[in-house]
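To illustrate this point, what follows is a protein record of this kind.

___
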Amino acid sequence: MPQKVSPYIVASVDRALELLLILGRHPHAMGVTELSKILGVQKSTVHSLLQTMLARGFVQQTDNGRYSLGMRLIHLGEICAERLDIRTAARQIMVELANETKEIALLAVLARDELVIVDKVEPQRPFLIIPKFDFSMAIHSTAVGKVLLAHAPDEIYEAILARGIERFTQFTLTDPEALRRELIKVREQGYALGCNETIEGITCIAVPIYNAGGKVAAALSISSASSMLGADRYEAIIEILKEKAKLISRRLGCTC
């Protein structure tokens, strides 16, 4: 049975989109004549459509007059990937993380210069109960916050310094230079620690999650009683976190 065609389809827009799909299927730049034959319309129509999309950056033209996909599509693809519901992409993997480690799993993002916990998963038999706490201003003292801050633009760091670095426990880093060194270390080693810095007796370990553009979109962590994190378990959890974060990143379109 033939597919029913919507009465709302605009023929010229449909042809322009089909041109983009054709260019996407071919590894080389294509000429107007070649595209005209594939699309089944006159060369003048193809030329007009291509010139319109060229003006908006959706296609680009080589020196010999042939066409390929434009850089604007890369930008739109990154935006699309970023707007995927990261909680949906991460939820099942977070459940696996919580049950494998028997620890609480957290997913966090940045909202300007504030930390937002967008999801939390507790294991089936939790050993730890995290007291209620406003994490929004704890970007400098939590592992998820450090991961996000380490990869954030400099102006975010400056905004946090401007509002003041709050001390939550005796272990909280409040010296700007010490915090800056800590963030450099986080970038280099690929994970962050928050040992008794926000709530005494609780340690969190976090790793970055990447989007389709290869940028850090979120942070994934586990929170544990500090007394339960010996050296062997600490190393094992870091590897599990990295594995789970990689799976989530791939769901967001990252090829890393």
